[in-house]
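Thread title: Can someone regenerate the structure for this chain?

I was given the following input by a collaborator and told the matching structure tokens would be attached. They weren't. Posting the sequence so someone can regenerate them.
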Amino acid sequence: MTAHQLRAVRIVLVEPIGDLNVGSVARIMKNMGLSQLILVNPQCDPHSDQARQMAVHADDVLLAAQQVKTIPEALRGCQRAIATTARPRDLSTPLETPEAALPWLLEHNTVAEVSTALIFGPEDRGLSNTELNYAQRFVMIPANPAYASLNLAQAVAVCCYVLYRFALAPMALDSTLNGAERIEERQQADTGPQLSTAALENLEGYFQHLEEVLLKIGYLYPHTAISRMGKFRRLFLRATLSDQEVAMLRGMLRQLEWALEQASSPDAPVQ
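Best answer:
Regenerated them for you:
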């Protein structure tokens, strides 16, 4: 691992509401060698005097921050995304510690540098279940159960520190994990996909296409589509599909649409 890999990790803040937090996040990122800050529909002024004062010498990170309207826009060009949460959820994908999950964002293929993302929710509510559906893995920072919710900038600091340590000295971080965690991670690495993980915008296109087809055939209903599609999203995100596999799945959907059109055509033979 080398420090340049940190620059490929995007820190995505969804609807941040505090100028001070955004400025603090920019400073933390520069402290730990990260530079890509993405703000999704910010509810504050990231260029305010307060934000710039908190950024101190990280003005370059703050001023270069991209502002987008949606999480899919923030993830465009990424192949991997991890979302953070401060509380257990009723999700089929397990919650992991930062040390166990975050190094996955730094594992690049040998062909080209891969962009990845770490997503944080708003200060007042965190990420919703719908927003979590855009990530493949989930992280929860262990804390006192009586008060487990960290300040946004603090949560970013913990995660960026873990990324920094692993990027510069992966073996040192590995020694902090217990033996069972190390064995499990090595087993996952040995049995993991050999193909490059699909770009997240390609997966998003597949999810939208899948929802359209399932609505057409009556498997989904409009009033339950969001909940049911959330389960499908988590299923396919856990599978870490390649672009080739996504293309195959979309080809199946197109063939199904063609068959539906043929069946509804007035010239279709009566069975």
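Confidence is low (pLDDT under 50) at residues 178-193.
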